[in-house]
Amino acid sequence: MGKPQVVLGVSGGIAAYKACELLRRLTESGHEVRVVPTDSALHFVGAATWSALSGNPVSTQVWDDVHEVPHVRIGQHADLVVVAPATADTLARAAHGLADDLLTNTLLTARCPVVFAPAMHTEMWEHPATQENVATLRRRGAVVIEPAVGRLTGVDTGKGRLPDPAEIFEVCRHVLARGTADPDLAGRHVVISAGGTREPLDPVRYLGNRSSGKQGYALARTAVARGARVTLIAANTGLPDPAGADVVTAGSAEQLREQVVKAAADADVVVMAAAVADFRPAAYASSKIKKKDDAEPEPLALVRNPDILAEVAAHRARPGQLVVGFGAETDDVLANGRAKLARKGCDLLVVNEVGEAKAFGTEENEAVVLGADGSETHIPYGPKEALADRVWDLVAARLA
Q1: Which one from 209, 236, 305, 352 is the annotated catalytic residue?
Q2: Looking at 178, 211, 236, which one is the last position of a domain?
Q3: Which of 77, 155, 159, 353 has an alpha carbon 20 to 30 Å from 112's alpha carbon atom?
Q4: How far apart are CA 71 and CA 63, in angstroms?
Q5: Is the same domain home to 172 and 226?
Q6: Cβ distance 240 to 212 under 8 Å?
Q7: Residue 15 has pLDDT above 90, yes or no
Q8: Are the beta carbons of 340 and 349 closer than 8 angstroms?
Q9: Residues 343, 392 share a domain
Q10: 290 labelled ligand-binding
Q11: Final residue of a domain: which of 150, 178, 206?
């Protein structure tokens, strides 16, 4: 088999320079990339740069190299088309089927998956016209990544920033790996918790756990690639925001509960992948607890934290809402998992064995997914993204 054929469309926005990094990641990972910029994009990054980085000629008009019929051939031969950045104008032209340059012609002829990574000012992104165009593209099967929140052109800050190129690359990689133009989570809102909560003891100490958040982030990335609107509630992870996910931070279990309940109000799926502390200190010391000479520390009194998974499962915000839990066990994994599934009342429970250098903080994982319907699905050891995709397979089947 030859290299996967990727078309990188570049619109005329200030974020066009970031597409150079995306191009580099695509080519270095073994993809053959043809860059198709708009005329406006060339005001920000010249054709010579795109040609040098991709190793392929660069055209903007259907009249360039007309004997090769580029307005048809480029889209027909592509395995993936990604437009980054996608301006409001490009989204509008794509949604309305215009074909006034090489990029829009390519989008009309492509029968492969298409990913748009929008970048524009907040007001333009929030305008009803843009939102309708995005909804149209998503309804047709395109993956439109939600913009990031951050610094925009000039002094403006808000939603509309191009996500990190490394994270856009991850979305592209997942879409290519699935090999389908059918985003089966399109139109769905999924809420995912990730990381580990920290329960403050004093201003410098806390009770915590080893969870890195990598499995929850893998669930977020794969859900975005499958077309979902993703709210990721991150507890103490330190990981880069996945492209396309709305990220909300939380520290303690009570803060995580507040954010999960709020986000779950209009969610189709809630996935509790975070490691939530079962207990917290009964009292918080407002100043650092000092070590006393020749004296043992006072016993630490603990109280229970809210059981977020059980609460969300028992009080579903909307009919048909699916709730997925994670169960981290150190022994009697399946027996404890089945008991937890019954106790929590969720639809699916992903049970895995944890410990030092096992699941927590690693790039790989394995699990058994137990269903309330009595099903049992073993997911073999492998990348956390593979486990995440298998979980979404099970969720998508139940949503259908």
Answers
A1: 209
A2: 178
A3: 159
A4: 9
A5: no
A6: no
A7: yes
A8: yes
A9: yes
A10: no
A11: 178
The mean pLDDT value for 274-278 works out to: 93
H helix intervals, the chain: 19-28, 47-54, 70-76, 88-95, 102-109, 122-126, 128-139, 165-178, 214-225, 253-263, 308-314, 333-344, 384-399
Structure-token pair, residue 137: 């593209």
Residue 292 annotated as part of some ligand binding site: no
Q: Are residues 230 and 153 in the same domain?
A: no
Flag whether 183 is in a domain: no
Pull the structure tokens for residue 116.
Answer: 């748009």
Residue 308 assigned to a binding site: yes
Statement: residue 67 has pLDDT above 50? no
Rounded Cα distance between 86 and 94, Å, is: 10
Average pLDDT over residues 386-399: 96
SS3 state of residue 55? coil
340 in a known ligand binding site: yes
Neighbours of 204 (CB within 10 A): 10
Compute φ and ψ for 8, nearest 5 degrees.
Answer: -105, 105
Domain that holds residue 276: 189-399
Number of domains comprising the chain: 2
Q: Is 169 annotated as a binding residue?
A: no
In terms of domains, do 216 and 347 share one? Answer: yes
Supply the mean pLDDT for the chain: 91
Rounded distance between C-alpha atoms, residue 270 and residue 201, angstroms: 29
Q: How many Cβ atoms sit within 10 Å of the Cβ of residue 60?
A: 18
90-144 per-position pLDDT tens digit? 999 999 999 999 999 999 999 999 999 999 999 999 999 999 999 999 999 999 9
pLDDT digits (tens, 9 = 90+) for 325-362: 999 888 888 889 999 999 999 999 999 877 565 567 78
Other residues' Cβ atoms within 10 Å of the Cβ of residue 299 = 6
What is the value of pTM for the model shown? 0.89
246, containing H or E segment: strand 245-250
Task: Answer yes or no: 336 catalytic.
Answer: no
By the 10 Å C-beta count (0-12 exposed, 13-18 middle, 19+ buried), 230 is classed as buried
Question: Which one, of 231, 206, 227, lies nearest residue 285 by Cα?
Answer: 206
Which of left, alpha, beta for 361 (phi over 0: left; psi -120 to 50: alpha)? left
Report how far apart, in Å, the C-alpha atoms of 305 and of each of 20, 98, 219, 257, 301 are.
47, 55, 25, 10, 13
Residue 203 lies in a domain: yes
